[in-house]
Amino acid sequence: MLSNLRQLFRCRGLIQILVARELKARYRGSVLGFFWSFVNPLLLLLVYSFVFTVIIQRGEIVDLEPYAVFLFCGLLPWTWFSASLSEGANALLVGGNLIKKVMFPAEILPVVAVVSNMIHFVFGLPILFGFLWFYAMPLRLTELVWFPVVMAVQFILTLGLVMVLAALTVHFRDIKDLLANLLTLWFFATPIIYPMSVVPPRGKAFMDLNPFSHLAISYQEILFYDGPFGHWKWLLALAVAGAVLFLLGYWLFDRLRDSFADEV
Amino acid sequence: MPAIELDHVTKVYRRHGRRRQFATLKSALLTGSLVKHLRPDESFSALRDVSLTVPKGACYGVIGRNGSGKSTLLKLVAGITKPTSGVVGVTGRVSALIELGAGFHPEISGRENVFINGIMLGLSRREISDRFDEIVEFAELEDVIEAPVKTYSSGMYLRLGFAVAINVNPDILLVDEVLAVGDEGFSLKCLDKFAEFKRRGKTILLVTHGLSLVERFCDEAVWLEAGQNRTSGDPKRVVQMYLADVEQAEDQHLAAEDAKAQRTPVTQAPPPGPMTEPAAEGAASAEPEETADVSEPEAADDDEPPANMFVAKEGRWGSGAVRIEQVTLEGSRGPAHVFHTGEAMTIRMRINAVHRVDDFAFGVSIFSSDGVCCYGTNTNIEEMESESLEGEGEVVFAIERLDLVEGTYKLDVAVHKRDGFSYDYHRLLYTFRVKSRTKDAGIYRPRHVWRFTDNVRFKKPDDRSDD
After folding, report:
1. Confidence check on the interface: ipTM exceeds 0.90, yes or no
2. What are the residue boundaries of the structural domains of chain A, listed by start?
3. Residue A187 reports pLDDT greater than 90
């Protein structure tokens, strides 16, 4: 396992260049080009804000103004998460040519999926912070230092999940379709469009089992809500769980590795 | 220490048929049976118990039919896939020219793809920078290297892939039928590059259908047949044995087709309504309009448009008064369907006329695969006057030397009245192949020799004339 991790580290040059390729290729040929990385989250935000402020009236929920900022705090990380999962699960199939025809460490492909979506997330941050600045939201440095930690936790958790999904999708293509629907359900089962405070007590236990809840809440507490970051215990627990998941996922991936070239 | 060593290597692939039940996912993961337990009906062996040793610095050829396991062998050596059992030992850095440009992304430029592909193949960014010009020059893509790869022609794409892969500077080069890349000039450049590799003491494993390349270029060769090592060793010998086997298989194939053709019933078309039962009375009494319908290349009074005889439509027709019951082609060593240029060929027809017939002619003509009549004759043209024919008999058309160039040919045999009315016409029903070591052009190869005055010199003795 250790040697595997070291090997993965040694491939960072390759990961870097593949991520760059992914980013370059994605918007090649479009007029706005790289600006789409900024425009996409903005448009997404526009759609959601419109739906949840104009079409659906939120009624009695208080303490959620400005709603667009609240929404953005959860939506942006969610986009990273869900896109990583759906892209990562497919990564080995899409990159099948590499696995079948070139000597190529297969784990790079899911890693590239997660990293390139993280870059998109990072590109969306200026817009998020622009909003925060525009609405004069109070930001404290003591809270902001947690921001990279939350990102790191999300990264390791996502990577762990993607490893499992990528390896299994090679053998069970059903996962691809299953996942797309599961992600929709997951989105609504996470306090992104609504705050945790509206969840009834019975649902709360369920919410606590949802790892992305804690990530969303962490982002919201750090960026949206005033006051100290109180969710850090959950976050650290999630970090441990994420690390374990990653190791397990990598182990599974490694175990199935030899079958990839034959099955893809 | 050998560069590549395969020790009793077997590779089993699962056939993609019915999917296993999803319910077994959990147990499959827990026991690891996902990879190991393959039911025999779901699997096939791409390689079976293959052992071979490629010494360092050798050029080793791998030949065999499609699906004989050649590419699987390369993938095992490249480490892309693992053997089901047995050991694959490889010493040195490997570069595999299995699929060229496998990692290319169509949307980004050739320049960026060179870097990405190079890094994937194990070069550092610096190494690529150093070799970049060389790579682009080799691929002959100086003008378009900044354009996205999707705008490249397939030849350009492969050339770039080849140029990168060859510049990885491996100790062992695996080549899978990539010399078909690009035009003649580029192929020659690739061969030069291989020769350079060889000079520098590097090992090459070459999978190809270009047998002459194997003979010329390789120090050793192996012939894989259905995943097994059929024979290996001296490339000339291996290639000869392979060719002999291919010929034999072709012969069997053609024989099977002929057997099918022999069973073709005498059809009534194109002449409508002639008697098909040999026992029928008055079989030889022909209605005049039928005669005109039968397109008959050799008929002396052929008034059909000549285009008609080039219509390569197979079939059998005729009144059946005289039948050609069996046609056998024979070479110098008995029945055959594959002949070498210059070999003797005998066409043997078993005929049967239930009733006495006194107006008849036998004809034979040979067509090339694209329908050109190479030669045709009949007994009438050759001024043999028929007298009588009754009962079973044999007609032999013996060709002393079959001086045709390499290719597939079809045969017409017929028995008909002198005016062309068919008794039994077999149109293009028999196929034979002519093989030749010389790839000369045209249809007919006249026996010939070259002669020169003393000041015209050649390095090697000319072997153009037949043995």
Report:
1. no
2. 2-263
3. yes
